Each structure stands twice: as C-alpha cells, then as structure tokens.
Amino acid sequence: MNLLEEFDTITAIATPLGTGGVGVIRISGDKSFDVIAKIFTKQNLEPGKISHGWITDEGKKIDEVIVLPFKKPHSYTGEDVIEIHCHGGVNVVRNILDITLKNGARMAERGEFTKRAFLNHKLDLSQAEAVADLIHAKTKNFAIQSAKNLSGVLGQKISEIKSKLFEVLSRIVAGIDFPEDVAEPEYSYLLDEFTSAKKEIDKILTCVKTSDVLRQGVKVAIVGKPNVGKSSLFNTFLNMERAIVTDIAGTTRDVIKENLDWDVPITIIDTAGIRGGNEVGKVEEIGIEYSKQSALDADLVLFLFDISSQFEKEDAEIYDLIKDKKHIIVANKCDLGTKASISLPFNINNAIKISTISEFGIEDLKEKIKNTVANFATEETEFITNKRQQECLYRCKESLIRAIEAAELNELQDLISIDVKAALIALDEITGEVITDEILENIFSHFCIGK
Ligand code: GDP
User: Fold this and answer.
1) CA-to-CA distance for 330 and 305, rounded, in angstroms?
2) Count of alpha carbons within 13 Å of 130, Cβ hemisphere only?
3) Cβ neighbours of residue 207 under 8 Å, at least 6 residues apart?
4) What digits encode the pLDDT tens for the residues 204-238?
5) Which of 121, 261, 291, 395 sits CB 3.0–4.6 Å from 426 for a disulfide?
6) In this structure, what CATH number is given to the domain that contains residue 322?
C-alpha cells in the first residue's frame, strides 16, 4: 500500500487459527460500522460498549458473538474498528471473515493494522516495532523488555535528545539568517550540547549487547585445540550426529551453529581447532581464523582440554586468548584417567570434569551453562533496540562526533549545521518521522496478518 493511498476498510482474523475458546475478527476503516450493520442482528452499536447477538449471512445464523465497536480516534489503528468475538473454531472464524469480505471489507496485509496505527500517529515507529517484538518474543524476559518500548521508552528518550538538538539548530540558523539581530551561539555552548547529546546516544548504545542477547539468544562457543572433543561435546548437547567426529586432528574446518532451548535461547557454536604454527594449511588457516573470531564474538566460551593427556603450549595459547572473556573450563576425556599436570594456567578445581563418551559430568556442565547464561538474560536493560534502530543511532553518533570536532575548531556554523541536521534525520528515522515506503514495507512485512 502506498502511503498516499486512501485507507479502505480492512479485515482479518486476529487470533491464531485453531480450536480455542474464542476467535476474534477485526475490521478497521471508515466502513467498519456499515459492514457490521449488514451482518449483525443488533443495530445502532454504541462505541466502547459490547453488544451480544448473531452474525448472519443472507438471513442464515452463523454464530452467536460479542461485538466490540470503537470510534476513531479511540482505537488501536486510530480508525473506526469493530472486533467480533466468536467461538474459536477454525471454520467459524473463517466463515465470519468471508462474510466481512463479502460485505465491503478487504483482506488486510501483513502488519497493516499496526501500520495504520503508526500512520495515524497512535504509535511511533519504535513502538510499532515493539509490537512485533512482543508477539515474536521467544523468552518471557524479552517480552517484558519489548513491552517497555511499546510503552514508548525509547521513543521518549529519542524525542528528548531531538528537541535539545533542534533548539541548537534553531539558534545556529537564526544567527545565520538574521546576523544583525541575533548573535551566533557561542562555540562552547555548541560543544556542551553536542557532547551531552552524544553521551545520551552512547547510553542507549551500551544496551545493544543485552538487546542482541535477548533477541538472538546467548552465543556459547566451544573452543580448544584439535581432538580435545569439541564436536563430540557439541553432538552430545544436540543429541545428534551433525558435526563429523573424527580422530584426525583439525578436521572440523567450519564453525557449526545450532540453537538449544534451555530456558534462555542459546546458540551453541562448535569451532575448528584454534592452532598456530607453520604446518597449518591454507584452508585450515581460514577455519582457524573463523574459530578465533567466533570465540571472541561469543558471550560465553567453553574452553575444552583433554585431561588424559599433557596440557600443551597450544592449549595454553588458546586459554590465553579467551581467559578474559566469560568462560567455563571443561576437562574432557576423564574416562581415560588424569595426566598429572603441574603447569596449568588455572586452578584445576575450577574445571568441570566430563566425558563425552560416558556422559559423565554432562548434566553438571549443562547446569553450569544454564546458570551462567540465565544471568545474562535477566540483566535489566534500559533500552531494547533492533538492528535498524542501532544503525540510525550509530549514524547519529557519527554526525555528532563530526559536529563536536567542527565546534572545537570554531568552523563556520553554517557547516556545523549540516552535521546537526544529519544527526536529527537519523533520530527521526528511529521514531519514523522521516521514513520511506520501502523501509515501512520492510518493517511491517515481518508482522502477521491480523496485527
Ligand atoms: P575436536 O577436534 O575437538 O572436535 O574433537 P572430536 O570431538 O572430533 O574428538 C576427537 C576424538 O576424541 C574422537 O575420536 C572422539 O571419539 C574422542 N573423544 C571425544 N570425547 C571423548 C571422551 O570424553 N572420552 C574419550 N575416551 N574419547 C573422546
């Protein structure tokens, strides 16, 4: 739908299709009250008051329902809205949908109800996106955090920053346009304002990590030198033979990922052996680079070593790489006995002893992982952002950095105003004041029909 296109009246099933207590069909648009008048036994519906009666089709009774009418602008979409609450059978709901279609409504597109709410200023874009987050939230915690954005937390913060920057821009422009009457603002004032706006943006950006964890799950990487049992552990966790287990060192070239559902969503990553030295082949080298990157990107690292053989320089190098990250030390192959090692870089009592063959210690390890990642996802975060919003925030920050540098150098204020405008546009995109049809389509196409 084009932004300038007139709003016609749309209809859709708002509840999941299945057998349940209640099914809801929602109609929105100027003709909503006309549509219901043609198909409902009660007439002259009063906005905000529920009515009980029958939906009929050419005189035939279809279902006994409750109808909830809303008059614009006091509705979800900001338009006239009718909700029909019927019995929750797949075919009852479909029949009623068909009847609304026959009587003047058109089938809604994905996310069209929420899109109308946005276009009618009932929600800003960050709130509309929060609706999708809330619906698709895979964990209870993410749902709670998304609800904060639905209540407008992010939008309000952005508006505050915007109004301060707008004030600065107005003063710059007034100084340029009316040099006789208005003095151009002091550079120290500009610097203070830009720096404080950048601080506010940085504050939102500090929540990016937690946002991503909540949205995508916690990334847990298994690292260790070749042959210590990484793929075996990965498979044990997955209970399937996805990675190829082999006793030739260094054959897991790629990074393999799988999702686990352990209360908190977890992405488990099996890395190729991280190893150095000249004997390594080119293909393997690429795999090693990936592994290093995966280890460094991960939220939690499982450092695996073979307790039945000597702890080598290579083990120590890998441990050194990840020791400052959140990690769990895992001593594998304990079914083969323990090789006394005097030079471990950590206290052996801190290691969880396991065997992927006998499955000894696997439950302990799983518990330890679950407890560690549970802390990640319950961490309170002030702001939840998605990739699109983060990209706008980074762009705003870059413009502010340029404005700060320019103000420090006492550059022409005309030039500085360009960066301030760019920062404002980036912020406008977050809440949707400046937005293209294409971006809108992209956002709302991820919704379901009926929302
Ligand atoms: P990766 O290179 O670190 O991924 O190691 P793999 O998972 O491919 O395992 C290397 C070899 O060690 C294979 O022969 C496995 O069967 C063996 N292995 C893995 N875990 C254990 C274990 O707990 N006990 C014993 N005895 N062998 C294991």
Assistant:
1) 6
2) 25
3) 381, 382, 383, 384, 385
4) 998 887 787 777 778 899 998 889 999 899 888 88
5) 395
6) 3.40.50.300
Q: Would 447 be classed as within a structural domain?
A: no
pTM of the entire predicted model: 0.68
Residue indicated by tokens 């749902």: 143
User: In this structure, are residues 402 and 329 in contact, taking their beta carbons and an 8 Å threshold?
Assistant: no
Q: Which atom of ligand 1 sits closest to the CA of residue 234?
A: 7
Q: Give CA–CA dist 158/29, Å, rounded.
A: 31
> To 10 degrees, what angle do helices 387-408 and 125-136 make?
140
φ/ψ of residue 99, rounded to 5: -65, -40
| Residue 247 CB less than 6 A away from ligand 1 | yes
Main-chain phi, psi angles of 429, to 5 degrees:
-65, -30
Cis peptide before 73 (omega within 30 of 0): yes
Say which DSSP state 66 is in: E
What is the tens place of the pLDDT at every residue in 75-108?
A: 999 999 999 999 998 999 999 999 999 999 999 9
| CB-CB contact of 328 with 300 (8 Å) | yes
What does the radius of gyration of the chain's CA atoms come to, in whole angstroms? Answer: 29
Mutation to probe ligand 1, out of 245, 288, 304 (largest number of atoms < 8 A from CB): 245
The answer for 427, left when phi > 0, alpha when psi is -120 to 50, beta otherwise, is: alpha
Provide the token pair at 90. 């797949």
CATH code at position 155: 1.20.120.430
Where is 68: in which H helix or E strand?
A: strand 60-70
- Domain extent, residue 34, equals 3-124
Residue closest to 404 by CA, chosen among 194, 221, 211: 194
